[in-house]
From TrEMBL:
InterPro entries linked: AAA+_ATPase, ABC_transporter-like_ATP-bd, ABC_transporter-like_CS, P-loop_NTPase
Family to which the UniProt record says this protein belongs: Belongs to the ABC transporter superfamily.
Parts forming coiled coils: none
Native species: Actinoplanes regularis
Keywords, sorted A to Z: ATP-binding, Nucleotide-binding, Transport
Protein's UniProt name: ABC-2 type transport system ATP-binding protein
Domain ABC transporter: 5-235
Molecular function terms from GO: ATP binding; ATP hydrolysis activity
Gene3D superfamilies in UniProt: P-loop containing nucleotide triphosphate hydrolases
Domain of life assignment: Bacteria
UniProt xrefs under PROSITE patterns: ABC_TRANSPORTER_1, ABC_TRANSPORTER_2
Membrane-spanning residues: none
Amino acid sequence: MTAVLEISGLRKTYRGRKGVRKALDGFDMVVEAGQVHGFLGPNGSGKTTTLRTLLGLIKPNDGRMTILGQEVPRHLPQVAGLVGAIVESPQFFGNFSAETTLSLLADAGGVNPHRVPAVLELVGLRDRAKDRVKTYSLGMKQRLAVASALLKEPKLLILDEPANGLDPGGIREMRTLMADLAASGMTVLLSSHILGEIQLICDSVTIISAGRRVAAGSVSEVLASHTSATVKVRLEPGVDLPGAVAILRAAGAVIPSLEKDHFTVGNATNPAQITKLLAEKQIYVSELTPVSADLEDVFLKLTGTAPVDGANRQVDQVAAETQGGWGQ
Ligand SMILES: Nc1ncnc2c1ncn2[C@@H]1O[C@H](COP(=O)(O)OP(=O)(O)OP(=O)(O)O)[C@@H](O)[C@H]1O
């Protein structure tokens, strides 16, 4: 596969009241052709700074970026026509209809006017195309923004939070739209906080935390390599569950949850050890199942942004989570 987008060692610092802030601290990203690539990170981790830098809106301090093989920002004029982007919520004139807005944009950008009805159809605004934009819902304005980015039939589409403000039906339609665009050969880079959506829509993902890449790869690879060794344990009916938990805890097991009829072991890198330890005390396991992580678990773990009981986590505050194995 060829990379449509490559970023390596990107650095951007801002000077502020409290001195220098590293918004990007040697960030790397690769997006392969024809993929829908998710760009994930907590608030303030550097996503918008990355996208703005890529589009030549911010000057980086260091690093290398290429779009479609061309080094940017130096060759941005050569590739600008092949990139559609919505990085900041675009402002549309409320008294114009979507059709007029897109026709004006097509005209200004030298785009064939036939693209206007085509993109209106694609984003699902056909039936409201003649209504004034000020009568649109947030989600409809979002669709219009996507339509404007699609006008010039870009090879790379960059969308910052495209599902913002969309209802579940709208999110599902956006998902179908992304899949259709990717199937037509377009590469889509999508930043989002809706992790379930990223998991459903994206082929691959980059996770950023504090200006650095903390994970990258296909969604399944990222999930597999960061799935914690958690197993769910069910015992024969009538067995003293807290007693069994105490035996395992004494041997070093971490038990994140104890329910009425089962418990979980969070550091079960060797699950056989659980059955062995309990069987030695004549306690028999009736079910032992791995608990698979979803993207939200991986995200919270890698970015250190899981909620902490009784604390209000502050922006920029990350908690490093370390979890050792047990029973090796
Ligand atoms: N113009 C600026 N001046 C100073 N600091 C800035 C500026 N723009 C961004 N930053 C800082 O850089 C860091 C990264 O910000 P950025 O907007 O890229 O994050 P983000 O991942 O897009 O966050 P969010 O998900 O909240 O939109 C933050 O700490 C932010 O405060």
